[in-house]
Known about the structure:
about 325 residues, alpha/beta, 2 domains, 6-stranded mixed β-sheet, 5-stranded mixed β-sheet, about 45% helix
Amino acid sequence: MRISVIDLGTNTFNLLIVESGPGAEYKILYSNKLPVKLGRSGIDKKEIRPDAISRGLNVIDRHLSIVSGYQSDRIYAFATSAIRSARNGEQFVSLIRERFNLDVEVISGEREAEIIYYGVRQAVSLDHKPVLIMDIGGGSNEFIIANREEIFWKKSYPLGIARLLEKFKPSDPITIEEIEFISNYLEEKLVSLFDEIRNYSIDTLIGASGAFDTMVAMIRADDPGFKSEQGMFPEMFEIDLSDFENLYQKLINSTMKERKQMKGLESMRLEMIVLSTLLVKFMLQKLKVKHLIQSNFALKEGIIYQLINQGIRASNLNM
């Protein structure tokens, strides 16, 4: 059976098409993400603006064209922070249903965190030791403390990069004072996370999001083997902490014009990558971790896992 999952995120709408095999196995046939910037100029007002709605509908139309070409048997669509927090989020979901006959399930932050864990667990070889998983989104950030067998704690915070950009409107380049101010804000808002972390011995931070994918692409931009590996859907990559530090320093000292020339940096990440790396830097300093790992699997792969292994209830469209 061919299964398609559309993940309606705040920054991007992502599409994953797989062929399910015997047991819990599946083969990835297609994976792609397209920018929508659903929260631009409206996320702080809890609103999806008309231009963002148009971008979203256009991207869904493009994704469904791909799905049709693959003759997918089932289609599942899930929405996260920007849609669940917007006053007109339900209207947007209704518009998608009317236009495409596609039902979108709006999931809670807690559910999102759980699904991300099941995605990461397929990509990274976890063992009995607890790790901290972080997904950097546009509308929210999910944190999960878990090991191979179970989730010990999970929480979604409305501190996504689109929200931080709208709130702080950092300079170009960002200033030292702004970095300190944003770090203090994160310290205040993530108190419950750090209280919980004290109960565990954690030396590994796993990042599961497009921001981490971009960081790896930038670090490995001059690696001749990286592009071919990308085409094979690499599942994880351990980021050398000194490589991350060099990238962080490069980005916080850069202007938008300079970032446009940087290898490995997608145009859709130009605005958000500075605050994304700032958030990772903040977490590394707080945790003093030994390992930083990028997982290429996150929400949509977690959805596939649950669909195949647990038969979760979800909306679908037969093409």
